[in-house]
Structures are given as structure tokens and as C-alpha cells.
Amino acid sequence: MLALKQIDVYYGNIQALWQVSLGVEAGEVIAIVGANGAGKSTILRTISGLIKPRKGSIEFDSKRMNLLSPDEIVRLGVSMVPEGRELFPRLSVLENLELGAAYVNRAYTQTKESLAWVHSLFPILRERASQLAGTLSGGEQQMLAIGRALMSRPKILMLDEPSLGLAPRLVSEVFKTTAQINRQGMTILLVEQNVRQSLKMAHRAYVLENGRMVMEGLGKELMANKHVKEAYLGL
């Protein structure tokens, strides 16, 4: 479904990723774990078209994406929930959701159905429909950011640090809803600081260190790996 092949990524003259390869199959939850600054978010931003790889290729459903713009990539079926949410704070909850579908033809024609789906996942967003997004709590804003991404009817949903800054109870809710979305057929690529929760729910996972992929395997296998336990699980 999604394949990165030997990509190199730079910020100016500074290299951030070295020959990174990964694959995502339809229906999977794939986690990318690693320390802060390892390059995890850079991978998602590169897939989204916000950064262009200097070498290597990115393919989605057998289509080369390297030269596509971010809006073209969304239309292909790739949607990202960015770190920090990046909502429109002076627009209402409903307006933020509607914008998620506004520029994707197949999604725009299903706006009503998509709203019903998002409201079934996050009932609080129906209650807050007329409230300004900037006045929501942190947890509600994260729900809105995920809901807005789902409004584009993506084939793959990328989540960048969805639990960042949330209370433990809300972190649990985010992972519970993410698992629910996956059970409904959504493919998910997850970057998350909570390594234990990520590996617990992931079908497969990759370990990124200093811009290089150093390990990959089933989520449960990496949970039991000595290096992962010592470096990321505090064991």
C-alpha cells in the first residue's frame, strides 16, 4: 500500500534521514518508535509532501509520490494528524471538520455521512459543534484533529504524537479510539512517544535511531527485545 525505499531527507545542508525504508500494508497499524529528534516526524512530513526526499522513492498504491504536492497526496488518500494539532482556533468545531472534506471530491460528496461517523467516534464533537476550536480542552482538540483528518476519507491515517500533552486517562482514550478506527478497516501509521502503548497495539513496528532504521518486527517481538526494553521501556 505504502512503501518508502531508501529515502534520504535533508533540512538545508543537514541530513535528517539516511536510506530509510518501510512498508505499510492495508489494514495494518504500523508504529515508528525512537527517541526525540530521531527523525520520526520527518518521515511523516516527507510522506505528506511537506518535505521532499533528496534520494529514494515513495509509492502509494503503486503511484510515485515524490513530486506530488501535499494537497494531491491528500486526494490520493493519505491524511495526517500533525503534532500540535494545527486546528483553526477561530473557526467552530463543525467548520474545522467540514474543512477536512472540502478539498477532496470523494469526501465532499459524503460530508454528511462522514460527520455521522466522526460523531460516533467522538460524541463530544457533536455537542461542541458551534464552539470555537481554540476554546476546547487539549483532549477535545486532539479528538477534533483526528476527526478532521478522517473527514477526507483517507485510505491511510498518519498520527504524529497523538497523546502528547494529554492526561493519562485521555491517552488511554486516544489509543482506544485509534484501535477502534483500525478495526473498522483504517490503515494507520503511528508516531508516538508512548512506546509501550504503541508496540502493544501495532501489528508491526520500526525503530528509528539518529535518522536510520535499526530494527523492525512484530510489535510484540519488539516489546520483548532487550535493546528496546532498555532504551525505550525503562526496563
Record the SSE blueprint:
Layout: E1 2-11, E2 14-24, E3 29-33, H1 40-47, E4 55-60, E5 63-64, H2 70-76, E6 78-81, H3 93-102, H4 105-108, H5 111-121, H6 123-127, H7 138-150, E7 156-160, H8 168-183, E8 187-191, H9 195-201, E9 204-209, E10 212-218, H10 219-223, H11 226-232
Parallel strand pairs: 3-8, 3-9, 6-7, 7-8
Antiparallel strand pairs: 1-2, 1-4, 4-5, 9-10
What does this molecule look like?
This protein is of the alpha/beta class and 235 residues long. 40% of the residues lie in helices and 26% in strands. The chain has helices at residues 40-47, 70-76, 93-102, 105-108, 111-121, 123-127, 138-150, 168-183, 195-201, 219-223, 226-232, and strands at residues 2-11, 14-24, 29-33, 55-60, 63-64, 78-81, 156-160, 187-191, 204-209, 212-218. The strands form 2 sheets. The chain has a 6-stranded mixed beta sheet with strand order 6-7-8-3-9-10, sandwiched between helices. A 4-stranded antiparallel beta sheet has the order 2-1-4-5, with helices on one face. The longest helix is centred in the last third of the chain and has 16 residues, at 168-183.
Radius of gyration: 17 Å
What level of helicity do the residues show?
Answer: 25-40%
Question: What is the mean pLDDT?
Answer: 92
Distance between the termini: 35 Å
Biggest sheet layout: 6 strands, mixed
Going across the biggest sheet, name each strand in turn.
Answer: 6-7-8-3-9-10
- Report the order of strands and helices: EEEHEEHEHHHHHEHEHEEHH
Can you tell me the residue ranges where pLDDT is under 50 for at least 5 consecutive residues?
Answer: none
CA-based shape: globular
Helical run tally = 11
Tell me the fraction of residues in β-strands, as a range.
Answer: 25-35%
